[in-house]
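Appendix C reproduces, verbatim, an entry submitted by the partner laboratory led by Prof. M.T., so that reviewers can inspect both the input and the predicted structure.
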Amino acid sequence: MNAGTIQKLSVIRKIDTGYVLEGDVLLHHNETDTELEVEQEVEVFLYTDKKGQTVATTAIPSVKMDEYDWAEVVEVVPSLGVFVDIGISKGILVSSDDLPLYQNVWPEIGDMLFVTLGKDRKGRLLAIPATEGVVRREWEHASEDMLNKPISGRVYHTSKEGTAIISEEGYRGFIHRSERMEEPRLGQWIENGRIIDVKDDGTVNVSLRPLKQHSMGEDAESVLLHLEQNEGMIPFSDKSDPEDIRGTFNISKAAFKRALGKLMKEGKVEQRDGKTYLK
């Protein structure tokens, strides 16, 4: 009677709290919406309760062993991980081992994770997030005419290099860290993205940044803020290292140069000796 499996079991006897199925599996009254009779066969999903006992429910989840589906996050426990709702009365743990290293990008309640079922070393049920290989089998191929089209989607992987999403249409999108203002959470729904490249394999590159003509003003404001917070001087110019610029302002060197150009044209800043000063 393995937890996480679907079985057809016969009712052995009725008890006050429900039914005892073959294999001494308990089916509580609140886990079935029909009246059962002794020797009647019933299809159930098996899982372990808080006491570690194998129990049954007639609610058959869409997330199963080796079958993936989206599950909503219903609880966050920093020392353990997050619990997701797979359609049964008990939340299933996604272990912290399968979540990002930094908790600031962990899922929040209401986010959705693409998971299957597995077990830990003690045989307890876990929800396991999909790997890139699994998602590769699921995504739809985008066509070239999708370029510059808007896109929304759900984050299924996040890292220092960027964020991977599955769109409403099933496209796999990648948001490089230079194309986002902040790192989205795993499981977060992303809106207002823009497709900036369609790859040969049908995946797309996505930007969450405004178009250049719109973002220039925001980037200029960010440069001004840094100047005001650093006594009117920052050790950056249009000749600075791109990685140093990205590490401080989270924008590309090209975007930084456009922002500086705007500010110098407006007479607000000047560059001297590889540094930028408020005028």
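The chain has a mean pLDDT of 90. Additional entries are available on request from the coordinating office.
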